[in-house]
Design a protein that fits this description.
CATH class: Alpha Beta
CATH topology: Rossmann fold
Helix content: 25-40%
Radius of gyration: 18 Å
Shape: globular
Largest sheet: 8 strands, mixed
Bound molecules: zinc ion
């Protein structure tokens, strides 16, 4: 066993078998801003064997107060490529793929079935409904994680075992109706903290995929120093995980009117 993981392998929760499972795992990180970059770094350092990093955007100066793996000399370059390049130095043993593209239905259908888990580095709710459709359709676990201002929330989604995003929020809000980090701001440590929560949940799912995980939404306010756990139930008649109507992925009308 690689000595770099010695302090992680002695954890009874991980062990040598768990470390081997991490090494054989492939995680898709959708979005490589603050949330995605910190999550990718945690997973790479923990020994996840393969990462696919997706982001269409380039690094801008107002990203620098919160992102991981990127520095001022990187401005104007692809966030996905910058993260992959930094991780090649940090964790040379892993396989890395950087994809500079808008994550749409085509990418979701092609990539989600190929991975063991998806991490949420997105900055908009609309794409999370697409991700939720793809993960439920193909039975791939993912972590819904979102940050804004001084607070954030995170919930692991285990298709077939617990609630999905649409059990929690049945319909997406109208486009542009919610505040964003551009309008409401974002405290730098918030995405770091939520990335740590989502990375820890990801490691647990990858190490112990058969182990049950409580269906809870964790909500925290780092400025207010509060953390709450909200139980979430699978919704009766959920269009995604109940009726398996994948409108965001397949583009079909939600109700055929038959
Ligand atoms: Zn559902």
């Amino acid at each position: 066993m690689d000595e770099r993981f010695a302090r992680q392998v002695i954890l009874p929760e991980v062990g040598e078998e768990g470390q081997r499972r991490l090494a054989n795992s492939h995680v898709l990180v959708v979005g490589c801003g603050a949330l995605g970059s910190h999550t990718a770094e945690a997973l790479a350092r923990a020994g996840v064997g393969r990462l696919t990093l997706v982001d269409r955007d380039v690094l801008e100066v107002h990203n620098l107060h919160r992102v991981g793996l990127m520095a001022p000399q990187d401005l104007g370059q692809s966030k996905a490529v910058l993260c992959a390049n930094a991780l090649r130095h940090i964790a040379p043993q892993i396989r890395l793929h950087a994809e500079v593209v808008d994550f749409g239905p085509e990418q979701a259908s092609a990539w989600v079935p190929e991975v063991d888990l998806v991490a949420d580095g997105l900055d908009n709710l609309e794409t999370r409904y697409l991700l939720n459709d793809a993960c439920v359709k193909y039975g791939v676990p993912w972590n819904y994680t979102a940050v804004l201002a001084t607070h954030g929330m995170s919930m692991p989604i285990l298709p077939g075992k617990g609630p999905c995003l649409r059990c929690l929020f049945p319909e997406p809000p109208p486009t542009g109706s919610l505040p964003t980090c551009a309008t409401a701001g974002i405290l730098g440590p918030v995405p770091m903290a939520l990335a740590a929560l989502q990375a820890a949940a990801a490691l647990r799912i990858l190490v112990q995929p058969e182990m049950a995980m409580e269906a809870t939404l964790i909500q925290c306010d780092l400025w207010g120093r509060s953390i709450d756990q909200v139980p979430v139930e699978r919704a009766q008649g959920c269009p995604t995980c109940g009726r398996r109507d994948f409108v965001f992925l397949d583009g079909r009308p939600q109700d055929t009117g038959s």
